[in-house]
Amino acid sequence: SGAARGVWGGLVQTGGSLRLSCVASGFTLDRYHLGWYRQAPGKEREGVACISVSDNKTYYPDSVKSRFTVSRDNAKNTMYLQMNSLKPEDTGIYYCATLRRCAGPPADYDMDHWGKGATVIVSS
Predict the structure, then answer these.
(1) CA 86/CA 97 separation, integer angstroms
(2) pLDDT in tens, 3-44
(3) Contacts for 121-124 with beta carbons within 8 Å, 24 or more apart?
(4) CB atoms within 10 A of CB 86
(5) The pLDDT value given to residue 8
(6) Three-state SS for 54?
């Protein structure tokens, strides 16, 4: 099916760090644009990062820029989201995804396949 598994969430204090991992199953990540999205209760889904397939260019919205870093490890067929200086407003469910494009902060229509959500809670 190409579903992604192995996404882990976490509970951290404000200012802390957390790394999310997503291990692909049924396909190889090195052939796809990759992205991360998040959704908080009552809010629209927000694309927080993407990394292109060819040159590994990355894009972030202002809400997470300089704090979040997306990366890939093709040998492990795994994608990561490193989150630093976390704030309570970063709380939400995070999803890894393959994308149809990565030419800016990812939008909903850029999504292709996505994995199960990982809950991230940042306490005050």
Answers:
(1) 22
(2) 444 455 899 999 999 999 999 888 899 999 999 999 998 899
(3) 121/9, 121/10, 121/11, 121/12, 121/91, 122/12, 122/13, 122/14, 122/16, 122/86, 122/87, 122/88, 122/89, 122/90, 122/91, 123/11, 123/12, 123/13, 123/14, 123/88, 124/14, 124/88
(4) 23
(5) 56
(6) coil
Amino acid, single-letter form, for residue 56: N
Convert the pLDDT of each residue in 49-85 to its tens digit. 999 998 999 999 999 999 999 999 999 999 999 999 9
Amino acid identity of residue 47, one-letter, is G
Residue 98 CA to residue 104 CA, distance in Å, equals 14
Burial class (CB in 10 A: 0-12, 13-18, 19+), 40: middle
Instruction: Give the position of tokens 């998040």.
Output: 38
